[in-house]
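[job 4471] stage=fold_predict status=RUNNING
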Amino acid sequence: MRTGWRRIRNMPTASIQAATYAIAVIMERIALDNRWVTEQWEARGVVHDTSPPGTASQIIVRQDKLTQYLFPGHVIRLQRDEAEGYYLNITSPQPKVFVLWRMHDDVARPEFITVSYNEGTRWADSGDNVDGVPLPVELMQWIGEFVEQHYRPEPQKKKRYASNKDRGRMGRPE
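[job 4471] inference complete, writing structure tokens
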């Protein structure tokens, strides 16, 4: 008899679906006067995206040493298993949208977006380029409602104190 992964039947599809919000990411390039590094890239912000799917990126600011690009077509997805990370983010002093970006053809392009504090820190710990930009105010209520519906903090565990029975164990003299 085999006891491995089993498919769960009659699982409601509503529990699998994720809430989504369309955004565009603003990436900024600053030209540097440095012999080793010629430019610096970072995510500068996110805005609600109303452009049709497949819209190309565009330059929105061009100055002497500063260029900003708008990358439409990204989505923030709220997943039930990341509810704790959303809670930690929106209750922090400065809630953020985390943008993981990579260089493609000499341009920094956003690849993944999250509002989960846990997921954003995992990305940063892995060594990827991750920037935290301010969370738009209009997203706070949406994320808050999702957290209220799906997040249940784990109950605190009882503290265990040493007793007299523990004497003499763990290499301590009796």
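[job 4471] summary: The radius of gyration is 23 Å.
[job 4471] exit 0
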